[in-house]
Amino acid sequence: MSSQATSTGGAAPEAAPVALAVTGISKSFAGVHAIRNLSFVARKGEATALIGPNGAGKTTVFNLVSGVYGVDAGAVTVNGVDVTHMPSRRRIGCGIARSFQNVRLMDHLSVLENLLVGQHIRAASLTDLLTPYRLFPNHRWRQEARQALADNGLERYANETVSGLPYGVRKRVDLVRATLAGASILLLDEPAAGLNPSETNDLRDHLNLLVAQGLTLVIVEHDMHFIDSICSNVVVLNFGEKIAEGPLSVVRQDPEVRRAYIGDGEN
Amino acid sequence: MSGYLTGVLVVLAFNVIAAYAVYLPMAAGQLNLGIAGFMAIGAYGAAFLTNEYGWSMLAAVPVASAAAGLVGLVIGFPVLRTHGIYLALATFALGQVIAAVFLNLEVVGGAAGYTLSAYAGPYVVFAAAIGVVLVMLYLSRTRFALYLTAVKSDPTVADLMGISVRGVQVAAFALGAMVAGFGGAFYALHYNFVEAQHFNVLLSVFTVLYVLFGGAQTVWGPLAGAMFFTLAPEALRFGEQWRYAIFALFIILFMAIRPQGLITTSLFQGFRRRSNEASP
Amino acid sequence: MLTQQIINGLMLGAIYMLVAVAFTLAIGVLNFLNFSLPGLFMVGGMATYGFIRIGWPWFFAIGGALFLAALVSLLVERLAYRRGEGAEADVPLVSSLGFLVLLENLMLVQYGSDQQAFPALLPDMNLRVGGLVIGIAQIISLAISVILVAWLSWFLKRTNAGRRIRTVAENRETAQLLGVNIRRLVPQLFVASALLAAVGGVLFAVNYQQVSPWMGEGPGFKGVAAMIIGGMGSIWGSVIGGLLIGFAEVLSITFIGADVVNITVYGLLLLILIVRPQGLLGKPPAREKL
């Protein structure tokens, strides 16, 4: 398994090791190709962007990697482990967590409780399950979740029920929840969508900090400035196929990329 | 304590236990319309073990409720492949089948019913109900309760967070069945008589109504619902005949006005906010 | 002997079929498991009985009972369905169960909990065909059931109103975009399904010549089972399911005993729900989008 990961990424001697390797994956829904023979790698401690026009299949890639759908062909390797046939529930244990384009928080739970759910994979023993953590205000899992909220300037929302919060706050909580799984790879689906400029700046700083700490990010995003300031590598999708890959400054000159984006308002 | 009051409180105790049996799976998003079937397993189990084998109550009750839980566990796996209305109907069918099986079991008296010789007094029943409430309160402070809500709220995301959705669902279902069996066992031991006809759909339905009335969002809802529906009719002294008609009318109007139930999380949040403002 | 039982099963199945179609109309189009329908079935039988007892001619009595059932169903629509739309899925279901309990207990207050003898409306005539005995009431109720269901199926397939209903069943938003007035259509559907259930109740009373406040529970719940077995939302599925349940019931009574009916019928339902939840003729549910 690990040999596959190194063979995919071991080209340049100075390149960081491969964290996530997607090798020739395909998926069709009711006979329509959503993703066709897609390969790319995300390297440890780097941010990789996944861009493309609407409907190019970016979120589908996340769904295939996280296991919401199974692939029709190809393989997905996470930190050297082949997860292609692993149930979605187990994949987070290999060190990969994700956020959601449409903010999928548990509406009836408070912000803090949502974060506690995010910690599950690190608190999965029977003792953790049956410890009455709510009886201890300073229980370590609660402390950790509160700290994470404070780090993101969200502490005043800790006990609010999620359904009543503004979109921008929920979007940020969704991201914090993904980080609390302790995963080394984060798939972030349009993390900046719906945020105001100052929130976007904070988010950029936060993500750059995560990268500096050695986390691997894969980001789906439309905001090219945002991508430019975080991602060292960009994979461009169109109609489920990879049409270009490389640094943003290079791929944006690519004629096929320009053609894919004509009329899309970008570039 | 007067005999009348004791009688009412015993009924209350049974209703509270039954309400929590419905509440556990409901917290995980399952409408169990067959809870009476699991009560029947507990009731007949305790009756059979004390009668035929001379077991003491102390041994018979846990075994009988474990048997109900086990049936819940075994049946829960296939039945919980279904969701929503299908699940409600599957549990409904299950309840009917279980009651019908006991109706046909001649070892436990069949349609004529089954008389017990062991007896659990009112204080034993009260202790059992209080025990159930305490266990539920304890559970509500744990991650397990959190995951019940998570699984109900968004199973896809709960799964991606690494939670075994199936495991949580089956656990909630089986634990609910166990609590129902526990209540059923004491029911048999207290009244010294069981008949399959008692464990019918309406018993399941009324129990579900307690919980929905009280509210399934918090652990206090089932208690409030069971108390209201046991004590209010006594206090108001409706004619015996009108009791259920008024009960039903009340449920309909209440559901139309406050479908989320009496006691909700936002209610608690309101209290908390007020007390925070009072003492900053 | 066996042929006779098959005929009896057919008669019983025809009544279950009516109830199942009533359920399937509510669930297929409105996605509402309307547990007040067994109550409306009972209202059909009990109210007819009540009106006859106060001296109404039988056809007025039946008309009055059907009218009453339709009226109650509009109340169900108002209080259980419409109010529960934004709430959790369980709420309208439970509220409709509340209606069942309410109707049963109102009848109990009025007429007591005992079985009441329903007068024979039709001459006690039997057709004898080669050793088989078929009651005239049986034939008439079978005919009425079949005609009603066949007409409904034709109506949904061939008329504009029927097409509108099927569009709503497929997709609410699309239907609204196409200009279907859902606010008006929904009460009409409630009335239609109430009438089907109540007709079932009248036929049951005429056939078995007894009524009680609880008469809706058995046939009503078996109607639900029939609908599920046939496939939710499919009229012909309900027909098949109804007949299957009718046969299963009659055959288990004949060969095993009356007490095992619930085991056979609900065991069958449970099995279908586990093995093939969409039923015999239903479509599998659509999958979720992330």
TrEMBL record, chain A:
Keywords attached to this entry: ATP-binding, Nucleotide-binding, Transport
InterPro entries found in the cross-reference section: AAA+_ATPase, ABC_AA/LPS_Transport, ABC_transporter-like_ATP-bd, BCA_ABC_TP_C, P-loop_NTPase
Limits of the ABC transporter domain: 20-264
Span of the signal peptide: none
Molecular function GO terms recorded: ATP binding; ATP hydrolysis activity
GO CC annotation terms, alphabetical: plasma membrane
Alphabetical list of Pfam families matching this protein: ABC_tran, BCA_ABC_TP_C
Domain of life: Bacteria
Stored PANTHER family: ABC TRANSPORTER ATP-BINDING PROTEIN, CONSERVED COMPONENT OF ABC TRANSPORTER FOR NATURAL AMINO ACIDS-RELATED
Record's protein name: Branched-chain amino acid transport system ATP-binding protein
Classification of source organism: Bacteria, Pseudomonadati, Pseudomonadota, Alphaproteobacteria, Hyphomicrobiales
From TrEMBL, chain B:
Main location class: membrane
Superkingdom to which the source organism belongs: Bacteria
Entry membrane topology: Multi-pass membrane protein
Record-linked Pfam families: BPD_transp_2
MF (Gene Ontology): branched-chain amino acid transmembrane transporter activity
Membrane-spanning ranges: 6-24, 31-49, 55-77, 84-105, 117-139, 170-189, 201-232, 244-263
Any one GO cellular component localisation term in the record: plasma membrane
Keywords: Cell membrane, Membrane, Transmembrane, Transmembrane helix
Keyword RNA-binding applies: no
Location(s), subcellular: Cell membrane
Name of the protein: Branched-chain amino acid transport system permease protein
Organism: Camelimonas lactis
From TrEMBL, chain C:
Broad class of the protein's primary localization: membrane
Subcellular location: Cell membrane
Alphabetical keyword list: Amino-acid transport, Cell membrane, Membrane, Transmembrane, Transmembrane helix, Transport
Pfam families named in the record: BPD_transp_2
GO cellular component: plasma membrane
Membrane topology: Multi-pass membrane protein
An individual GO BP term: amino acid transport
GO MF term list: transmembrane transporter activity
Transmembrane helix among keywords: yes
Recorded superkingdom: Bacteria
InterPro entries in the cross-refs: ABC_transp_permease, BCAA_transport_permease
Transmembrane segments: 6-25, 58-81, 93-112, 132-156, 185-206, 226-248, 255-275
Family according to the record: Belongs to the binding-protein-dependent transport system permease family. LivHM subfamily.
Matching PANTHER family: AMINO ACID ABC TRANSPORTER PERMEASE PROTEIN, BRANCHED-CHAIN AMINO ACID TRANSPORT SYSTEM PERMEASE PROTEIN LIVH
Protein name: Branched-chain amino acid transport system permease protein
Species the sequence originates in: Camelimonas lactis
Lineage of producing organism: Bacteria, Pseudomonadati, Pseudomonadota, Alphaproteobacteria, Hyphomicrobiales
